[in-house]
Design brief:
Elements: E1 2-3, H1 4-10, E2 14-17, E3 20-23, E4 35-36, H2 39-49, E5 53-60, H3 68-82, E6 93-98, H4 103-112, E7 117-121, H5 122-129, E8 144-160, E9 175-177, H6 184-195, E10 204-206, H7 214-219, E11 224-229, H8 234-237, E12 244-246, H9 251-260, E13 265-269, E14 280-292, H10 297-307, H11 310-319, H12 341-349
Parallel strand pairs: 5-6, 5-7, 9-10, 9-11
Antiparallel strand pairs: 1-5, 2-3, 4-6, 7-14, 8-11, 8-12, 8-14, 13-14
């Protein structure tokens, strides 16, 4: 438990980054991930909670230039606001967004009890629930449960225009970042490469989060990087003046992948999403908010209720382009694992699922 006084002392060592106050050195998770608490929330808590102790409700997100991270911060802020309502089982909790390697790490951390919730690709969640792939030997991996589907993510293999890459065959021998171990992006990248008769060994692969690819893409040390995320994405947008293209996946190849991997579907990046990038066929998958099966039904109900509260929806709509895609009407789209019973009760109360 952390006291409000402790939190307020920590604000003196925070720095302003990207519109949010962030703890520079102190407030970190076990793996060194930054825990982010908006200044507005700190001031709000100061007025509402006095010296009451609180417990962090940790939401695993992703890298700082992805979509999980900013959307996760908005969801965490909404949860903190919901925790001030009386009565609520969320009272005493404060939502925090925690950086991570991505989907695989988030699943592992939720199962281990190191996170209360995590943002995860639907295909990765399904692998965990079925004890397959990276989760074949993970004890209790099948205990992942869904709170909601959030929005669709697009596979984006971003190339410098001067790299001379027009097809997947042209990637051989090129310096490509496939994201770090523990990310859903790397899993999808390998699936796409295999569908084209290739593997990582055909590349000169690097294992970097997109946040660390910008300078290398600009100076030519990298010729491309992969990211599985909502579009538009900051990591891509920052490179538009450098001159980039997104390598398309032929719709027939995407359809064949979808036949083998149920929760990957043919999709497209629409023209106008990124300046001077034409409509690009690709793969897409839903992002889910997941928790562990050990979470109480009342807590899972409250988390779901918070996600779709007027306050959180307003934050999402105003805070990020993809936040507008997170709605109650689409909450069950792309869900690849069982709902947590508490979340299921929330939807049943609203006539969205049957008894």
């Amino acid at each position: 438990m952390l006291s409000l006084n402790t939190l307020c002392r920590r604000t003196t060592s925070q720095v302003w980054r990207c519109g949010w106050w962030q703890e520079a050195n102190v407030c970190r998770g076990k793996s060194g991930q930054v825990l982010v608490v908006p200044l507005a929330v700190i001031l709000f808590l100061a007025s509402c909670l006095s010296t009451q102790a609180f417990t962090p409700f940790r939401i695993g997100t992703g890298g700082s230039t992805g979509v999980y991270y900013p959307v996760g911060k908005l969801i965490a802020t909404g949860l903190t606001v919901s925790a001030t309502k009386d009565p609520s089982v969320l009272q005493g909790f404060i939502g925090v967004a925690q950086n991570s390697a991505g989907s695989i790490e988030n699943v592992r951390a939720v199962i281990a009890g190191e996170l209360e919730a995590g943002m995860v690709q639907a295909d990765i969640a399904a692998l965990a629930y079925n004890r397959q792939g990276d989760f074949a030997d993970l004890l209790d991996a099948e205990n992942v449960r869904a709170i909601a589907g959030l929005y669709s993510e697009k596979f984006q293999l971003v190339m410098r225009k001067d790299a001379g890459v027009n097809t997947y065959g042209d990637l051989k021998g090129k310096r490509i970042s496939v994201d770090e171990i523990g990310s859903g992006t790397r899993v999808i990248t390998n699936i796409v490469l295999q569908a084209h008769g290739m593997s990582e060994q055909d590349l000169l692969p690097l294992y970097l989060k997109p946040a660390f690819t910008e300078d290398k893409m600009k100076n030519g040390q990298l010729q491309g990087f992969a990211i599985m995320a909502g579009a538009p994405n900051a990591a891509v947008s920052k490179l538009l003046d450098t001159g980039i293209t997104i390598l398309p996946i032929d719709p027939s190849v995407a359809a064949a992948i979808s036949q083998q991997y149920k929760y990957l579907a043919p999709g497209k990046i629409s023209k106008g999403t990124y300046r001077d990038v034409p409509e690009t066929p690709t793969l897409e998958v839903y992002a889910l908010l997941i928790v562990g099966s050990k979470m109480s039904d009342d807590m899972a109900y409250a988390v779901t209720e918070s996600l779709f509260s007027q306050e959180t929806i307003k934050l999402l709509q105003e805070g990020h382009p993809l936040g507008k895609a997170i709605t109650l009407d689409s909450a069950l789209l792309g869900v690849s694992i069982p709902l947590h019973p508490g979340a299921e009760r929330f939807y049943r109360d609203r006539g969205m699922v049957q008894q």
